[in-house]
Amino acid sequence: MIYAVGQGERKEISLLEKEIRERTALNTDEELNFVGIYTREAFEQFIEKEQQADILCADVTVFQGIEQVEAMRKKYPKAALVLIADMSISPVSYMKPTILAAALLLKPLQETAAAQVIKEIFQCYIEQAMDEEVFVVETREEKQRIPYSQILYFEARSKKIYVCTQNYEYGFYDTIDHLEEQYSELFVRCHRSFLVNRKMIEQVKLSQNHLTLNGGVEIPLSRSYKSQIKELY
After folding, report:
1. pTM of the model
2. How far apart are CA 221 and CA 115, in angstroms?
3. N or C: which end of the chain has fewer CB within 10 A?
4. In terms of pLDDT, which residue wins out, 228 or 17?
């Protein structure tokens, strides 16, 4: 599944959605989930609820655009960001580290320019991400590819396994024991219910019985696995 978000005026976002759908069909075998945001209220609901985005298309000229784009970038640091602007706004206001745009489109949008930018986004970001080694979660509704570099941990909960990243989680049926056996080179067991990404461990607190992962995420560390964790770190 490829997740794309368009925030701005309906006509322009519809054009970008069309180009993204065509490029998704041409370059991948994935389905596309596209979310259009056309009001301040819709944006606030999106930021609060939505959990994933691969492509962001955001207009900095509408309803506190700079502030909103910065909020989107903070929540989705790895997404490819296409900015929409016009000559009334200085590039200094949006070409900065807190936004890190991958491309810029000027209003009024031209179909040829939009098609070229979306093509480049897929070549430079989406196809490259799809070539990365991934963990695949398959359900009846969809198939989700999650790069190992984005996985914080696996958790056994409510008779399912959840693969968790900074912004989202997906549930599927398996066992922690089976995952530990398959992916022992990438993940380490720290608790009967948790298998954590070795590269995501920032701090081990043996006396406090927990690990701290990237982003400040705390995971319990049980007595049974302390010696194993202590040897590694």
Report:
1. 0.66
2. 50
3. C
4. 17
